[in-house]
User: Fold this.
Amino acid sequence: MKHLMSPLDFSVEELENLFKLADDIEKNPAKYASACNGKILATCFYEPSTRTRLSFESAMLRLGGQVLGFSDASNSSAAKGESVSDTIRTVSCYADICAMRHPKEGAPMVAAEKSGIPVINAGDGGHQHPTQTLTDLLTIRSLKGHLDNLTIGLCGDLKFGRTVHSLINALVRYPNVRFVFISPEELKVPDYITDMLKEKNIPYEEVIRLENVMPTLDILYMTRVQRERFFNEEDYVRLKDFYILNTEKLALASSDMLVLHPLPRVNEISVEVDSDPRAAYFKQAQYGVYVRMALILTLLNITVA
Ligand code: CP
Assistant:
């Protein structure tokens, strides 16, 4: 039985197979409409979510399966003190596969160890968000045509942003990828990431001003400054509007640069940018359904002829 805790749980070759399956699902949805007949997905979300939970549920429903779960820990027996291990042992009696989001880093891994069904990490604290990374990679592969030979700018909260950490870990496996980290000093990418890049001889630079590097980027991955990860409100208020991508700044970018964002956004991308053809963040949310459909089929070992 396979679980998904980190994007590195799949080899580059396995990822390519997943993306080819997601491509086929996008082109031929009717072929997959009954693939999960009789199967049940549990979504156990101890933290808020719109995209991840609903795209998982949409994915299972589009595969002909059914869904159950909770979207708020206060409505589950976690509120009475039940452990994640006991919860997953119980959920294993009710469902065939589980997507779990939890504020504590490593909680889905603890669940996987006790689970009788595949567990998917749907985001654990500031640690990893592997299905967002699968979504990001599929979006780049579909819209750019390749995952190698890219200069990727990551902008905003690079310290607490789990989507950023997961994406960097996944992209380092592709040839000729270069990173530009754009953040205030307080939200710099953690040392363990820059140490890993140095060890692998992967080029990166760290800058504060977005405008200076905009023309060099193939992808600009914007992120939200996450209020829920800050220890004090004062720091959050000081940093929350540090970067705001508007049409003036976007004019400095190349005509084929892609703007991605895992969403939700707050102020970091002005709504006026949404109508620019380079703004790909809502398409990205759509790719999240195809890749989660492909993931569910893969983890349940279901093949469709
Ligand atoms: N991208 C993402 O994880 O969004 P949600 O928090 O809405 O699931």
In short: Residues 131-285 form a domain with the Rossmann fold fold (CATH 3.40.50.1370). The chain has a mean pLDDT of 95. The beta strands are 40-45, 66-70, 97-102, 119-124, 150-155, 177-182, 204-207, 219-222, 258-260.
